[in-house]
From TrEMBL:
Organism lineage string: Bacteria, Bacillati, Actinomycetota, Actinomycetes, Kitasatosporales
Organism domain of life: Bacteria
InterPro entries: DNA-bd_dom_put_sf, MerR-type_HTH_dom, MerR_fam, TipA-like_antibiotic-bd, TipAS_dom
Entries under SUPFAM superfamilies matching the protein: Antibiotic binding domain of TipA-like multidrug resistance regulators, Putative DNA-binding domain
Keyword Disulfide bond: no
Protein name: MerR family transcriptional regulator
PANTHER family the record matches: HTH-TYPE TRANSCRIPTIONAL ACTIVATOR MTA, REDOX-CYCLING DRUG-SENSING TRANSCRIPTIONAL ACTIVATOR SOXR
The species this protein was found in: Streptomyces violaceolatus
Ranges where the HTH merR-type domain occurs: 1-71
This protein's record includes keyword DNA-binding: yes
């Protein structure tokens, strides 16, 4: 039995453009073609796609994924064991970091000293103060919270407008990259993620790559973040999370 590219995209939760890209670079070449020349994927192709997506979720660049999957010395069970080990290590690291996580919802939800009219001008119908009590309870004893309170205490309406404009521009960059079919680990996406991290560090609190990765994970684990981010484009939160992870891997020795 074989499947069309549209069916496979639906099964796997990826875009048709992504499958075309995997075919173009030789990472996942469909086993068959229809009489009209359309791609047709076999069950074995789906197995390989599953392995690809496992490694992509773990932050492996596409060229490393190809090298791993095409290693003649490895078998499917070896791949599963390796992925299980990597996932277990990642889960353990995230659990450890969660116990001492030093970041807040978003710095714009802390230390907002604006009038109601000014808040509306800057943030629209989003009220950053609605999360303040939760933020204080969860992260009030962290360095990140203290740093953000100190930095934002002197922010003016113009400062918040500039920060919001920077955030909106980054959102437009990420959406444009998605629309262009750029993978989350492309140079453009990783550069956007790096600018996102530097903006947090510049305007709010120290944000290293581990902390940035935790923030990216929260974009998809907290439905409030996901809903807010995906308002710009469905799937944007997950794309940003993947780009943040890929950028962290790029900067990790």
């Amino acid at each position: 039995m074989s499947y069309s590219v549209g069916q496979v995209a639906g099964f796997a939760g990826v875009t048709v453009r992504t499958l075309h890209h995997y075919d173009d670079i030789g990472l996942l070449v469909p086993s068959e073609r229809s009489h009209a020349g359309h791609r047709r994927y076999s069950d074995a192709d789906l197995d390989r796609l599953q392995q690809i997506l496992f490694y992509r979720e773990l932050g492996f660049p596409l060229d490393e994924v190809a090298a791993l999957l095409d290693d003649p010395a490895a078998d499917p069970r070896a791949h599963l064991r390796r992925q299980h080990e990597l996932l277990s290590a990642r889960i353990g690291k995230l659990q450890k970091m969660a116990a001492a996580v030093e970041q807040a919802m978003e710095a714009r939800s802390m230390g907002i000293n604006l009038t109601p009219e000014e808040k509306f001008e800057v943030f629209g119908d989003f009220d950053p103060d609605q999360y303040e009590e939760e933020v204080r309870e969860r992260w009030g004893n962290t360095d990140a919270y203290r740093q953000s309170k100190e930095k934002t205490a002197s922010h003016t309406k113009e400062d918040w407008q500039r920060i919001q404009d920077e955030a909106d521009e980054l959102t437009r960059r990420f959406v444009a990259l998605m629309d262009a079919g750029e993978p989350a680990d492309s140079e453009g996406a990783m550069d956007a993620a790096e600018d996102h991290r530097q903006g947090i560090a510049r305007n709010h609190y120290d944000c290293g790559y581990e902390m940035h990765t935790c923030l990216g994970e929260m974009y998809v684990s907290d439905e409030r973040f996901t809903r807010n981010i995906d308002a710009a484009k469905p799937g944007l939160a997950a794309y940003m999370r993947d780009a943040i992870l890929a950028n962290a891997v790029r900067h990790t020795p």
